[in-house]
Amino acid sequence: MPKPNLTHRSWAEPYKIKVVEPVRMTTREYRERAIAEAGYNTFLLRSDDVYIDLLTDSGTNAMSDRQWAGMMIGDEAYAGSRSFYHLEETIRRFYGYQHVVPTHQGRGAEHIISQILIRPGDIIPGNMYFTTTRVHQELAGGKFVDVIIPEAHEPASEHPFKGNVDLGKLEEVLRSNPGRVPYVSVAATVNMAGGQPISLANLRAVRDLTRRHGVLLILDATRVAENAYFNQQRECAWPIARIVHEICSLTDGCTMSAKKDPLANIGGFLALNDEGIAEKARNMVVIYEGLHTYGGMSGRDMEAVAIGIEESVSDEHMHARIGQVQYLGEKLHRWGIPIVLPIGGHGVFLDARAFLPNVAQELCPAQSLAAAIYTDSGVRSMERGIVSAGRDPETGEEHKPRLELVRLAIPRRVYTQAHMDVTAESILSVYTERDRIGGLKFVHEPKYLRFFQARFAPVPVAKEEAAEKRTSPLTVL
Known about the structure:
Blueprint: H1 28-37, E1 52-53, H2 65-72, H3 82-94, E2 99-103, H4 106-117, E3 123-126, H5 131-139, E4 143-146, H6 167-176, E5 183-187, H7 200-213, E6 216-220, H8 224-234, H9 240-249, E7 253-257, E8 268-272, H10 275-288, H11 299-312, H12 315-334, E9 347-351, H13 352-355, H14 365-377, E10 379-380, E11 382-384, H15 386-389, E12 405-409, H16 417-432, E13 440-444, E14 455-458, H17 463-467
């Protein structure tokens, strides 16, 4: 009997399962009807029709027993809730920011900081756009300028820190727009690049540049603990909690969706060091969110977020969280399926351009691929390409990003390795029959953040071409 190989020992998640939620597998015929009724948009599917839900890691986490217990002692006082002060103390301890303004979720914080700092005609440089961040900047009259390094736009590049800022580009933007750059926007990690991290060395250099030019540096801290894991593995050997604090110390404030790293199902905050900006934010939150000591969150939600922040910076937790993402990504990569490399923090990103080279970008290849994966197995993913990029608000022209991706975002502490195997096998099945997948066209296009509610239809092609392909709702007809 062969002996097991003990040079590489297996590891297991640092938790055990207490509660389960039943899910069901549907038939292919059922899924074909469901995706057609949803306009080939996975956001419009009913969750009951989804088998493995990798649409997003936002608000889909499994909370711990400590978080659920904390919710039982949430203080629902309208003013001065002790749960707010617990949250404020936790943010000061782990992130270091002095002033905390709670919001209902991350985009509430994005809205407030954009309205306070941006004036019409301003320029906001950042390490690749994010959908909600950019739309709030544009609604305030600003224009986002991408200053991420070129490698971030190359799916096959294995640069270890593809979230880094191109310092030359940033300095040029700052030098060419004196008085018109209210702040530099930096994400850790960069979602639209495939969950790619920014290095501490690069962030320190960005900090030096912004100080020389008298410009604020605002962090999207949504996945800062995941970024810290990559810093730990590739740059320094500090504990994740120390790296998180260091990242935040290099910035003037942050927006946070507590639905990601902090392991909660709802919530967010704006955290700042400048008292004057914080006072304006407290004034605005009363208008748009709620009183400054709850800001759209219940007391029980604030307790869950505070406890989740502490759990998120555990080395053991983050090793298991990123490990599950790596497991799925490495399996797909071994099978030759094109994905973004290195494998990111919160999900695996399929390179839809390489996956479907015969589908033009104007025909939404990533959207088509996400719909095809759902039809095959009931696994729900989402598009991160031309649909998510939207249109230029001034010209109406399509933004055409170099990256055309399908994101398989993995909720924290929700799925097992067996779910990852099912997902990988479904993608392999779709890949082997990829020539049967055609494009999609818009039949309903919302003005803002269109990827959430847009509807599509298959694109007609010549009959002789269609005859070469097996008929299916996702085959170009």
